[in-house]
Task: structure prediction
Amino acid sequence: MEQKNKYRAIKAALLISCVGFAPMALAGASAEMLANNCVGCHGPDGSSLGPASPSIAGDVKSNFIDIMKSYKSEGGRFSTIMGRIAKGFDDKEIELLADYFAAKKEAPSNQKVDKKLAAKGAKIHKKTCKKCHADPTEDDIMLNNQMKEYLLYAMHDFSSLDAGKIASKDVKKMVKKLKKLSAEDRKALANYYASQK
Result:
């Protein structure tokens, strides 16, 4: 009899704990909970601490949503792993993440910038990139204040793509322009964007 009462007490405790958590489970994940999935690569509050991933803190909400949806779509935005990760979020969760990161202020990267290279990069930007990357607050990906190494890796990755197999006209245009830039020109661009706050 005593054994039976123990089992009843355990069942009751489990039932009460499940009922207590049910409203939270039904409400879905909070923006902060969802964002915790991103900090491993994109840094605390979306401010990247390393060269592998861009900072996403302070990103424009509509741009964040467009990028995530593009990652999810077949033949969408080029990525190494974000295409797989983005598929794990539904539209409502993407909107929550967009609001969350748009409200965050990007931490300064405090990276050393070569002023001569940055000045050269400013000229290259004006001649080659400004038409599409004119306003850093409206760009579909923020270039300003990103880590130089990340920018160099991204330029290398894009320039390695086959322009003939790219669906997006904008990306195709960017790939062709990047292929024409020397390694020194790309380094200058990376220093220029890294110097912009």
Summary: The two ends are 72 Å apart (CA to CA).
